[in-house]
Amino acid sequence: MSSFLSFAELCQRVEGVSGSLEKVDLVAAFLKNLDDDELAVASGFIMGDLFSPSMDLVMGVGPSILYEAMARACGCSTERISDMLRATGDPGLVASAAVDKKKPIGFAAFIKDEPLSIKEVYQRLVAVARASGKGSQDAKVKNLQYLFSQATPLEAQYIARLAIEDMRIGIGEGGVRDAIAQAFSQDASKVERAYNLTNDIGLVAVNARKGTLADLSVLINHPIKMMLAQVGEGISASMQELGSAAIEWKYDGARVQIHKDGKRVRIFSRRLEDVTRSLPEIVRLAQEVRADKAILDGEVVAIGKDSRPLAFQEILKRFRRKYNVEKQAKETPLHLFLFDLIYLDGQSTVDLPLTRRRELLEGIADPSILADQVISDSVQRAEEIYHQALEKGHEGLILKNSMSVYAPGKRGKNWLKIKPVMETLDLAVIGAKWGEGRRASFLGSYRLACLDEATSKLQDIGWVATGLTDEALAELTELFRELILVQNGMEVELKPAVIFEVAYEEIQKSQSYSSGYALRFPRLVRVRDDKSLEEADSLERVESLYRVQRGRNNSR
Ligand code: ATP
């Protein structure tokens, strides 16, 4: 049985080296020596992904639960923990320092012969996640408290980071995939494909070891990564690239992946979170689909009285809603537009061409819930459809290669999106400032960062003031309150978890921020609750937008 200490030591080493190849080597060597259960757990742990998606578990640990657990385990006050945080800015280091100085009270007073094992830590974290409803806060604290009370300082550092699902060791999904490929002598592309199909890194690791990656396929009730679209270079060039294309509106809504298993329906958001409970009318629509088992891909749109789509925030409110969902469903009804089929009655359909998937979809779904689609090679036809979409308040077009397979998790040339505006950036919010005067109780401006994919680190790119109403600001402040890590005068450091979609006039080179860039006149477009941190735009994308923009300016 492998000790959790060995895992913590691995993390420390991975964090300590800067090259991504070295990190992959270290992880690969570690994974090789684990038994299957440990392998499944540790592969996820390394990237801060704690549970298999089939378990349908959410950690639900914010800084307040974490600090309470540390304080209780170490016999110090939460104020002391907050002070330490101000000094280090890293919950992992605080946990390690707190454990180092702990007084043996509570659980820690028991003598324990066995060091923590990977499995034990995992089981405790499952217990933390399973605690829900009344009394759950306390149950979560107690389980974490137990772990901290048994941990060495180094173990505590990574237990804290696991608890908030933010490992900060500079290796992401791609690195872990490469490590699995290397550890078990598998092709990296096969590992990637298996991961995109199952979204379950533990399952992939175990099958890589067995040499059975090819057996992994789409599984019902197992959300699959969604296929994404690339930015097209205008209608004419994109149509030329695709030849005969499937032309569809880019609906202004939110992505859903629907799993229908008999009468049981589960709906996953773009982040692959289960949002079934909040969308009863979509569940009912999916139950009418004429297939015993199916995985459907589409967009839900909230349409207002003027028959135009409502703001994206309105849809997200529906996604987040846990209570009074039927009432809310009446107030903001959602429409469903299905555009793809991923699985049908026991068979994955991802390898079929789009036209065939569409035929199958038309065979099982009522036309009222299908996205309109026109197959054509005419630029003029595409332009007409584009104008119709914009007139109806939607975003533009998605032009699809009609012969293409469904490529899970891929943003490729087979789906091209056409939108009228300059591309916005999706940036991680890593800090904020309290307002002044009347707005002193609101977080008014926010520090933004893009993701440096080479190092998996967030690099700041400036601040955005929201220009929001007091009511909207209050709502936003509430969203961030749980994420405050460190309070520094008027500024706070936030746990990076929220993505802002930001529009701007121009990208400029800048020495003021670690990304090397700054945004001119940034403006908050919306909170992208449907995107996870890893989906923040990359530094590479900022650089490429900067170059495109320079080209454009030069040709003026
Ligand atoms: P954006 O910010 O432009 O929505 P994104 O990163 O969320 O970008 P993209 O892959 O760039 O996602 O664009 C595809 C998104 O457009 C899908 O995730 C989906 O939510 C939405 N969409 C709307 N209509 C369609 C359609 N007909 N086919 C595919 N995706 C569609």
UniProtKB/TrEMBL annotation:
Alphabetical keyword list: ATP-binding, Cell cycle, Cell division, DNA damage, DNA recombination, DNA repair, DNA replication, Ligase, Magnesium, Metal-binding, Nucleotide-binding
Domain of life, per lineage: Archaea
EC number(s) given by UniProt: 6.5.1.1
Enzyme class: ligase
Domain named ATP-dependent DNA ligase family profile: residues: 327-452
Gene giving rise to this polypeptide: ligA
Residues given in the record as ATP binding sites: 248, 255, 270, 299, 339, 411, 417
Originating organism: Methanothrix soehngenii (strain ATCC 5969 / DSM 3671 / JCM 10134 / NBRC 103675 / OCM 69 / GP-6) (Methanosaeta concilii)
Name of the featured protein: DNA ligase
